[in-house]
Amino acid sequence: MKDYPGAFMYGHGSAGTGTTESANRAAFDKFRIVPRMMRTCTSRSTEVKLFGKRYASPLLLAPIGVQGIIHPDAELATARAARKVGVPMIMSTASSRSIEDVAEANGEGDRWFQLYWLKTPEVAISILNRAAQSGFTTLVVTLDTTTIGWRPHDLEKKYFPFGHGTGCAVGASDAAFMRLHGYSEIKHNMHVEYPYDPDELDRRAEEGDEDVKERMRFGNIWSREMNSGLFRTWDDIHFLREHWKGPIVAKGIQCVEDAETAMDYVDGIVVSNHGGRQIDGAIASLDALDEICASEKIRSAQKSGNFTVLFDSGIRTGSDIIKALALGAQAVLLLQLNIYSVGRPYMYGLTIAGEAGVEEQVRNILADFEITMGLCGFNGIQDLVGNRAALIRE
């Protein structure tokens, strides 16, 4: 924060006056866990099954873009740490490293791919194919970011990494996208040098630095592809089904009606408000989860294995995970401080110590969760998911 306040605030900030972000955390304080004693919890299991595959815990690393503004190793460090800890990484379309490079860094780890719904069908198909070929098993399509929300701090500080060509590696390494815009070859290693200094790059552009000017031009093209302002409908999901053979998860669901509609189109949802970064004054994500998982239709589909409910926005501790699971989530995404899932905390780890920092952050929250689970009398995830009686609401 001291050295690069712009990068810190880009990750820390939220939409408008920040009321949605604040509501996300306040919602957790409204629920209290009711511990149970004298239960057989000596040998506990945090294992969970999602889309037919078993994972060691109900924790996933949320999709966070432009990690190159945080650490020079960017998404590669996160991918390596996720593999070591044994948690799935969800790669963002706005990454500062290519799909192939992140997959290589992740090795034998589990990885999902997050899609900002691209404007051009041919580009979307190409990127989906690359993700599948690189071992990404589940597609997480973000519904709430057809355009970027109103974020006063970024506007005031003119802090927009895409405008200088960072967070654009997925596009720069895509042959279909590059051909579409007149480039004869892909730019596999295109990313802004660390630390990202927008003022310095603007100065260099004004002085005629052609490399910086080209990156700025490219960044604006890619940004318009990702955040085109083109609003989709549920029927458009058929396009994704045609070009993606694995599970599809819709991220950004915040009401019961949308959740029930989603059951006809996708395999699961992420109950999320983007960490409060898109809409000011919106419902807290945990409150939305509580309402959605109170739906008999949703609960029945979960029990039958036909529908999966995930959660993000606000998770910080092991107790937070317990609360989300008890309300009905089957797994949670970890963001940064307030970014997407369990996102922001692990971004702070990346900032401080790169791969080792991410690994330490994730191990800490997993240890917190496993210990607290036992102390509360839960032997496994099966005791927790949908166990509303484990909580009281103040």
UniProtKB/TrEMBL annotation:
<dbReference type="InterPro" id="IPR012133">
    <property type="entry name" value="Alpha-hydoxy_acid_DH_FMN"/>
</dbReference>
<keyword id="KW-0560">Oxidoreductase</keyword>
<feature type="binding site">
    <location>
        <position position="114"/>
    </location>
    <ligand>
        <name>FMN</name>
    </ligand>
</feature>
<dbReference type="InterPro" id="IPR008259">
    <property type="entry name" value="FMN_hydac_DH_AS"/>
</dbReference>
<keyword id="KW-0285">Flavoprotein</keyword>
<feature type="binding site">
    <location>
        <position position="10"/>
    </location>
    <ligand>
        <name>glyoxylate</name>
    </ligand>
</feature>
<feature type="binding site">
    <location>
        <position position="277"/>
    </location>
    <ligand>
        <name>glyoxylate</name>
    </ligand>
</feature>
<feature type="binding site">
    <location>
        <position position="272"/>
    </location>
    <ligand>
        <name>FMN</name>
    </ligand>
</feature>
<dbReference type="GO" id="GO:0016491">
    <property type="term" value="F:oxidoreductase activity"/>
</dbReference>
<protein>
    <submittedName>
        <fullName>FMN-dependent alpha-hydroxy acid dehydrogenase</fullName>
    </submittedName>
</protein>
<feature type="binding site">
    <location>
        <position position="274"/>
    </location>
    <ligand>
        <name>glyoxylate</name>
    </ligand>
</feature>
<keyword id="KW-0288">FMN</keyword>
<dbReference type="InterPro" id="IPR000262">
    <property type="entry name" value="FMN-dep_DH"/>
</dbReference>
<dbReference type="InterPro" id="IPR037396">
    <property type="entry name" value="FMN_HAD"/>
</dbReference>
<feature type="binding site">
    <location>
        <position position="92"/>
    </location>
    <ligand>
        <name>FMN</name>
    </ligand>
</feature>
<dbReference type="GO" id="GO:0010181">
    <property type="term" value="F:FMN binding"/>
</dbReference>
<feature type="binding site">
    <location>
        <position position="116"/>
    </location>
    <ligand>
        <name>glyoxylate</name>
    </ligand>
</feature>
<feature type="binding site">
    <location>
        <begin position="312"/>
        <end position="316"/>
    </location>
    <ligand>
        <name>FMN</name>
    </ligand>
</feature>
<feature type="active site" description="Proton acceptor">
    <location>
        <position position="274"/>
    </location>
</feature>
<comment type="similarity">
    <text>Belongs to the FMN-dependent alpha-hydroxy acid dehydrogenase family.</text>
</comment>
<feature type="binding site">
    <location>
        <begin position="63"/>
        <end position="65"/>
    </location>
    <ligand>
        <name>FMN</name>
    </ligand>
</feature>
<dbReference type="Pfam" id="PF01070">
    <property type="entry name" value="FMN_dh"/>
</dbReference>
<feature type="binding site">
    <location>
        <position position="142"/>
    </location>
    <ligand>
        <name>FMN</name>
    </ligand>
</feature>
<dbReference type="InterPro" id="IPR013785">
    <property type="entry name" value="Aldolase_TIM"/>
</dbReference>
<feature type="binding site">
    <location>
        <position position="251"/>
    </location>
    <ligand>
        <name>FMN</name>
    </ligand>
</feature>
<feature type="domain" description="FMN hydroxy acid dehydrogenase">
    <location>
        <begin position="1"/>
        <end position="394"/>
    </location>
</feature>
<feature type="binding site">
    <location>
        <begin position="343"/>
        <end position="344"/>
    </location>
    <ligand>
        <name>FMN</name>
    </ligand>
</feature>
<feature type="binding site">
    <location>
        <position position="151"/>
    </location>
    <ligand>
        <name>glyoxylate</name>
    </ligand>
</feature>
